[in-house]
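User: I've been trying to design a sequence by hand for this structure and keep getting stuck. Would you show me what you'd pick, starting by listing the structure so we're on the same page?

Assistant: Good idea, let's start from the same input. This is the structure you sent:
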């Protein structure tokens, strides 16, 4: 009578280990119940279940039959072997598979002769199961037939045969058998040891279905330098896997005979960069030179001969375009320069590169198209204005400006409405270069943009277009607090006319910024502004050489002539016409300067030369009288009237004589700096101890002008001077010396309780591209005074290119204040969008603290990952491994990068995650990362190798779990 047991009943029987209930359930009408009951009996492994299970081998349901066979195997009773053997010929493939599996578990030698015929079964799964079963039984009778399968075409079968032979106690008899066994196990070190006996096997293996077998076969053939392998290795150069073609080329290079040379020439056309490079290097060593244009192009590409490709003009374009897509980093910069040098013939190829999925390539293509100036690029560049990558869009805008095509005005106007400040800046700059009157209103509007760089572009654009309607918007920038904007305004008015413009330019001659004074002098000179003569004459004594020269040239243009010898001397000093000064004898003795006069101008080019005062007929009567007057307070320092003008020795005596009056010592300190003679360094260092603060200040100033490193220590001491003016001159002098050793004392000064001292140190630190200088500035961002913070931001802005490219360095700083403030500086100075673009790549950083700070900063800015890869990078950085695994293959590239992390925990997590989600493609990607090399740390290499090994083992486990399954 059929059993009424249900599936739920079977579950209870299994949990209670109810043998009788399970045997009864085998009689159920329900096939699912019988299937579960058979499986339950297999779990209990009770020999009393043998007979009932044998009966179910003839069950009408095929699934119940194979489940019963599996259960009999799990019980392992030899009584079942003889009953199971006939079912090896069952029409159902699954039944045959499970019978083989069961016979292997039962391990009855009686089954060996019955299993052997199935080693040739066309079903791969049954073949694998049979090999496994014979190994499990371990009968020596199976060894001979298994030995013949060591070189089976399928690597999975070879591997399983090697295992089974070992279990059967088989030992190789000679080197060929030892090599074949190592080959089946993929023990490549052993294979290379017996390579001579396996030459034909290794050539045969070049066609194996597994890439790593092909790769190692090629490598070992190269080590053997087998000339018989040349033709097969040449075919291997066309393999789809780069690692195989690379090893084939390297092997041919090792062989190095004429036949391999021909094969290597073929390798120059490989689609894989590493293969082409190996082939080219080998051909160079073999003395080969290309003859045809085709081979010349291939060879130049592989050897990075960009100059050679430039010379080929249009023939070099396509190879360069291909190399641009395949190379990375600095290599791309060199290729881009080559395409730029070719010019217009490269336009079509560059337009195609604008469609490349890599934004870095699109950006470079857009930049080069702008330099080429080919009108054919206008349409594609207009499309690129809407690129999702803002760097590409901005580059396209700038390029359109370089081409000067009116068709771009409307698209650029739309681009200016973007939320991205970089794109707005680029669009306005382009509109200015195109110079269309239709852009006037947009540029005027942009002059009020919230972003400083956009306003700068707008001011420059006004200067390029010169539309009178723009003048009211331009003139207020002369009073802007930002010196960069004032400078651009002074430059921009050259196309505008009127008294108001002349008046503003004249006023700019007194600007505190020397660049503005210099540019204003040039402008008023070209415009011949008579009203500017007075301010220009004053600029003849400006402390900056460039300003003095610009003022002198402007006065010449206006037609001004000096009215007295003092003006003539100042004018000639500004022009650096030292010979004329000497001829006219205009130099005055500073020791005879009348009371109330300024210090005499000391021409820097004279350097100790002796000059005489002007003759009586060239001096004013009053000047003659005053020149003969000996200054009061001088002891032994007076020089007779009409005597020789003193040189370095005189000024040294004056400076270091404590009985000389203060004004004379000040002038002597100033003169020693102007003379430019390094013999003045030591006296000036001594003068830093002068009782008068002004003397100490001028001594510091002159030491900065001389720029001698011997003064470094004395200037550092002067930073502690009680008078701020001396500190300021000492700090400026240290900056002029340019020694990075100055950063440490300046950083200490930045911690002073005096806010003026802190402001001074922060301003000067902005002149040093140095990590410690940036650290000091970032620390100072926490200053309680707003004016100090503002100075910090200005210094950081000036150094933004330097520290912005080293963000990761500061994010891994031990000081949390540095880590916090570098993010603040990024957001404040560069904007959140630019900050995000700088931080995103850091999610791949090999340093845990860098990743952690980058993730925190991005989260604080409300960043949401746009792509699954970014999502994976963030989760890896945060160590959320379960979520990473849930992403599956989408997380693969992020996990492979994490294998080379410096943090052991991240490495281990990446290895474990890859073992769960990886497959054969993952192993290839890991090995490709290892081949790229670079400065990979040894721990990262070990982690990558471990991950690849675990993935392969997981594939093997899938094969053995619940019985053998195909190795995919």
């Amino acid at each position: 009578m059929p059993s009424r047991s249900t599936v739920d009943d079977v579950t209870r029987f299994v949990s209670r280990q109810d043998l009788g209930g399970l045997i009864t359930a085998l009689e159920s009408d329900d096939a699912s119940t019988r299937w579960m009951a058979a499986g339950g009996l297999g779990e209990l492994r009770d020999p009393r279940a043998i007979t009932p299970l044998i009966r179910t081998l003839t069950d009408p349901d095929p699934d119940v039959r194979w489940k019963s066979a599996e259960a009999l195997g799990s019980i392992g009773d030899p009584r079942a072997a003889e009953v199971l053997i006939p079912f090896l010929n069952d029409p159902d493939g699954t039944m045959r598979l499970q019978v083989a599996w069961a016979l292997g578990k039962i391990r009855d030698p009686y089954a060996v002769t019955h299993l052997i015929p199935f080693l040739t079964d066309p079903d791969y799964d049954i073949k694998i199961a049979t090999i496994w079963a014979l190994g499990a039984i371990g009968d020596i009778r199976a060894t001979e037939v298994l030995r013949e399968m060591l070189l089976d075409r399928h690597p999975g079968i070879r591997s399983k045969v090697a295992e089974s032979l070992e279990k059967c106690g088989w030992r190789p008899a000679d080197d060929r058998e030892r090599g074949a066994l190592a080959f089946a196990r993929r023990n490549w070190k052993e294979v290379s040891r017996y390579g001579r006996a396996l030459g034909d096997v290794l050539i045969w293996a070049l066609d194996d279905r597994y890439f790593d077998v092909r790769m190692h076969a090629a490598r070992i053939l190269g080590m053997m330098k087998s000339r018989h392998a040349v033709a097969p290795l040449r075919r291997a150069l066309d393999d789809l896997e780069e690692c195989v073609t690379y090893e084939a080329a390297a092997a041919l290079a090792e062989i190095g005979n004429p036949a391999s040379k021909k094969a290597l020439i073929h390798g120059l056309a490989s689609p894989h960069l590493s293969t082409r490079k190996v082939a080219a290097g080998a051909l160079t060593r073999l003395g080969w030179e290309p003859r045809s244009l085709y081979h010349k192009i291939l060879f130049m590409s592989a050897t990075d001969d960009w100059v050679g490709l430039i010379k080929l003009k249009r023939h070099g374009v396509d190879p360069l375009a291909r190399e641009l897509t395949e190379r990375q980093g600095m290599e791309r910069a060199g290729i881009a320069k080559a395409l730029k040098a070719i010019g217009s013939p490269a336009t079509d190829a560059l337009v195609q590169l604008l469609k490349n999925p890599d934004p870095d390539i699109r950006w470079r293509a857009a930049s080069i198209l702008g330099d080429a100036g080919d009108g054919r690029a206008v349409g594609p560049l207009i499309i690129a204005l809407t690129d999702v990558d803002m760097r590409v869009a901005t580059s396209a805008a700038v390029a359109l400006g370089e081409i000067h095509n009116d068709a771009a005005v409307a698209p650029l106007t739309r681009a200016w409405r973007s939320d991205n400040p970089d794109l707005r800046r680029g669009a306005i700059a382009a509109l200015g270069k195109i110079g269309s009157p239709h852009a006037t209103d947009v540029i005027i509007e942009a002059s009020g943009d919230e972003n400083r760089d956009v306003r700068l572009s707008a001011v420059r654009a006004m200067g390029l277009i010169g539309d009178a309607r723009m003048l009211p918007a331009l003139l207020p920038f002369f009073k802007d607090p930002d010196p960069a904007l004032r400078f651009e305004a002074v430059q921009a008015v050259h196309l505008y006319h009127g008294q108001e413009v002349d008046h503003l330019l004249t006023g700019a001659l007194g600007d505190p910024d020397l660049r503005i004074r210099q540019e204003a002098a040039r402008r008023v000179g070209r415009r011949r502004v008579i009203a500017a003569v007075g301010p220009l004459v004053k600029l003849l004594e400006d402390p900056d050489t460039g300003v003095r020269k610009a003022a002198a040239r402007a006065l010449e243009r206006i037609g001004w002539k000096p009215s007295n010898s003092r003006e003539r001397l100042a004018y000639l000093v500004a022009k650096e016409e030292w010979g004329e000064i000497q001829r006219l004898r205009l130099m005055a003795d500073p020791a005879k300067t009348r009371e109330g006069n300024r210090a005499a101008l000391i021409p820097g080019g004279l350097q100790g030369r002796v000059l005489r005062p002007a003759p009586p007929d060239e001096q004013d009567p009053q000047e003659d009288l005053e020149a003969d007057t000996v200054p009061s307070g001088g002891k032994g320092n007076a020089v007779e009237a009409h005597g020789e003008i003193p040189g370095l020795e005189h000024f040294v005596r004056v400076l270091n004589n404590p009985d000389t009056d203060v004004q004379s010592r000040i002038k002597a300190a100033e003169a020693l700096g102007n003379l430019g003679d390094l013999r003045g360094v030591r006296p000036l260092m001594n003068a830093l101890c002068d009782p008068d603060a002004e003397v100490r200040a001028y001594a510091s100033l002159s030491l900065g002008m001389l720029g001698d490193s011997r003064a470094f220590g004395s200037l550092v001491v002067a930073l502690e001077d009680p008078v701020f003016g001396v500190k300021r001159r000492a700090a400026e002098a240290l900056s002029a010396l340019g020694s990075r050793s100055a950063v440490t004392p300046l950083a200490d000064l930045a911690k002073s309780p005096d806010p003026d001292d802190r402001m001074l140190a922060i301003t000067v630190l902005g002149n040093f591209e140095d990590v410690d200088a940036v650290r000091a500035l970032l620390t100072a961002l926490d200053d309680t005074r707003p004016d100090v913070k503002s100075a910090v931001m200005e210094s950081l802005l000036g150094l933004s290119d330097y520290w912005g490219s080293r963000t990761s360095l500061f994010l891994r700083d031990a000081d949390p204040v540095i880590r916090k403030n570098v993010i603040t500086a990024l957001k404040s100075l560069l904007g959140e969008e630019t900050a995000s673009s700088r931080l995103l790549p850091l999610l791949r950083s090999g340093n845990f603290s860098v990743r952690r700070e980058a993730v925190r900063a991005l989260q604080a800015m409300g960043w949401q990952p746009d792509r699954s890869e970014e999502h994976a990078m963030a989760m890896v950085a945060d160590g959320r491994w379960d979520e990473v695994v849930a992403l599956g293959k989408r997380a693969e590239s992020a996990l492979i990068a994490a294998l080379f992390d410096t943090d052991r925990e991240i490495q281990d997590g990446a290895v474990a995650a890859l073992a769960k989600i990886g497959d054969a493609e993952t192993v290839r990607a890991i090995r490709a990362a290892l081949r790229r090399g670079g400065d990979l740390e040894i721990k990262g290499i070990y982690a990558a190798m471990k991950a690849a090994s675990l993935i392969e083992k997981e594939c093997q486990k899938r094969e053995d779990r619940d019985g053998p399954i195909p190795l995919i």
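That's my pick for every position. To get oriented when you compare it with your attempt: The CA atoms of residues 234 and 266 lie 8 Å apart. The first helix runs from residue 7 to 16.
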